[in-house]
Amino acid sequence: MNRTLAIFLLATLAGALSFEPAVAGGEAPTQASAEGVVSKLKGDVVAAGEGWALIKQGALLIDVRSADEYEGGHIEGSLNIPHSEIARLADAIGPEKDRAVVFYCRSGGRAGRAQEALEDLGYTGIFNASGYDALVATRP
């Protein structure tokens, strides 16, 4: 029960979700309602947590969403280079193809496509931390 409540509070406090209580009258959340909150996240909270560990170790953080999405909210310190601009992404990473880099987007799809394109060019240090919401909800 404590783990469920912690997940619920973390997601709510992060402001990344709109939560509708499963039970009227202000009763404590149930396991099912807390799991429902977590399932509304765009992205993978496990990948996001691993992304934060890499960021803490100094990985370059790149938001591969559009400029409009970035302006609507982003992780502090991230660069914004859209996923389709592979040459710009490669320039930002630099010549070290094993440099630790963390990508994120809305749900992980665009970050995955950018990661794959760069891996095809020989880059090996790229990690897909999935979605912005998941990163916000798991921020240390």
Report on the structure:
This protein is an alpha/beta fold and 140 residues long. It has two domains: 2-39, no CATH class; 45-138, Rhodanese-like domain (Oxidized Rhodanese, domain 1, 3-Layer(aba) Sandwich), CATH 3.40.250.10. It is built from seven helices and four strands, in the order H-H-H-E-H-E-H-E-H-E-H. The protein has helices spanning 2-14, 31-39, 45-56, 67-71, 86-93, 109-120, 132-138; strands at 60-63, 79-80, 101-105, 126-131. Strands 2-1-3-4 form a four-stranded parallel beta sheet, sandwiched between helices.
Characterize this entry briefly:
This protein has helices spanning 2-14, 31-39, 45-56, 67-71, 86-93, 109-120, 132-138; strands at 60-63, 79-80, 101-105, 126-131. The chain is of the alpha/beta class. The chain has a four-stranded parallel β-sheet, with helices on both faces.
Termini, distance in Å?
A: 21 Å
Give unreliable regions as ranges: 1-37
* Structural domain count: 2
Q: Please give the share of residues in helix.
A: 40-55%
Q: Which strand order spans the largest sheet, edge to edge or round the barrel?
A: 2-1-3-4
Looking at CATH, the homologous superfamily of the largest domain is Rhodanese-like domain
CATH names the topology of the largest domain as Oxidized Rhodanese, domain 1
Strand content: 5-15%
Biggest pleated sheet:
4 strands, parallel
Radius of gyration: 17 Å
Q: How many strand segments?
A: 4
Secondary structure class reads: alpha/beta
